[in-house]
Amino acid sequence: MQVSKLRPLCQLTTLNNVITRTVTSNAIDTQLKSWREIPGPSLWDVIRQSVPASGGNRLDFTDGLNIGLNLYNSYGPLVKLDAFLGRPVMILLYDPECCAQILRSENWLPIRTGFESFNYYRRYKRNKNNENKSNPNIYGLLTDHGETWKQFRSTVNPVLLQPKTIKLYTAMIDEVAQDMVARLKSLRGENNVIQSDFAMEMNLWSLESIALVALGRRLRCFDSHLSSNSPEKKLIRLVHDIFKTGTDLDFNISLWRYFPTPAYLRAMKLYEEQENLARYFIDKTIEEFAKQGKTKLDDEKSVLEKLLEINKDVAVIMATDMLLAGVDTTSNTMTATLFLLAINQEKQDKLREEIQTIKDPSQKRYYLRACIKESMRMMPVVSGNVRETTKEYNVLGYTIPAGMSVSFMHQAMSMMDEHYPRATEYLPERWLVKKEDPLYHGNAHPFVNQPFGFGVRSCIGRRIAELEMESFLGRLIENFKVEWFGPPLQSRSASLNYMIGPYNFIFKDA
């Protein structure tokens, strides 16, 4: 179908003395339709793709980009997915100006859905098993909403968003990157292909990096002599198992919302063990701080030291949030970036030239940053942002009530030529060229691409993630000429866009 490209108009409307956000098109028709009339695939189409035995191959909901584009091409800029087995109705929005208006309107106390099983653990199971170990009213950033979320976010913002504090980690994060490069060299076979699970290796790098910030220490993830029963190994296994089990509960068909399934019971145990291990490592770091006996200036204190000054419970909850949200995100982003550079050798050569010219990783490398930005445009770790509306909206001729889940389809929009010319091409230059250039990224609506989210619920670990990725990518391209063989890298969409093997990288010495 031909989709209207009319520029939306946004205004405030009063209905029954309640101010609501109205997003309408330039069309003359002002008759609003119910959200139930929003076009979308039938429930039967969804069932056919969710239950393998039922057959059918029209919609593949594990392919985030293609399903997003197919739904847009079939139904237009506003799509409805019906509720199914515990999953709520989801409205998909592809109009960037409408996305902007809703996100801005929801920016006081926004509700971001997701992490349902983890939220259930923190609100109900943790309190039953608490044994006075932690404050039951602290739920963290990932799972909480409302005033308690706002209070927690306001508490940790000055620590995690302070550039001077994050800069303290530059040398340590770079040390992890160099250690990982050495590990990859040792894992190469005769054909320069990594002889182990590449996805696991990337997760080890990411976990080792984020643990420096979250737990104030290195976990020695690369130490082959580390005992399998050590707390470090247990945490490594836990992080891996939590990603898989949590995704199965929250994004696949599961009956845990109705009765305690085996997967649900396992997840509750994993969440508890992770929090206990985070507390264990933080206690060890506190002991080491005490032994040092040094008085530090505020600018010299680490993230963990500053969080501990606020409240130990805050430090533990924030650490578990960072371990849950800060491993798969950076590892999958880095894998996607390496793939795009491997199949675009001229871009990789240009990046290597910059790295060889600017050898100090603490100095700004603009092309390196552009390479990561472009990969996050094309192969982002999440397909879009989600909000649960707190008020009624009139969007493109339809009424969307409060309490509705709305997904802002950033990845699909980012791959449309109307927003980014030559959208399917990997062109880091679009982030560096001047305004007069047709490729200039600023010509796109700013709400087309939001890889770190928007507003008060934007990623609090953005500065940390950027430091990790820039340091690691710089060291990799400095040491390796990365190539790719075989079919393109594939991804599977769940809570994140997970890169899936085979990982056909070749790491030749540069």
UniProtKB/TrEMBL annotation:
Needed cofactors: heme
PROSITE patterns named among the record's database cross-references: CYTOCHROME_P450 (PS00086)
One example GO MF annotation: iron ion binding
Superkingdom of this protein's organism: Eukaryota
Sorted UniProt keywords: Heme, Iron, Metal-binding, Monooxygenase, Oxidoreductase
Binding site for heme: C459
Family affiliation: Belongs to the cytochrome P450 family.
PANTHER family, sorted: CYTOCHROME P450 (PTHR24279:SF120)
Name assigned to this protein: Cytochrome P450
Organism ancestry: Eukaryota, Metazoa, Ecdysozoa, Arthropoda, Hexapoda
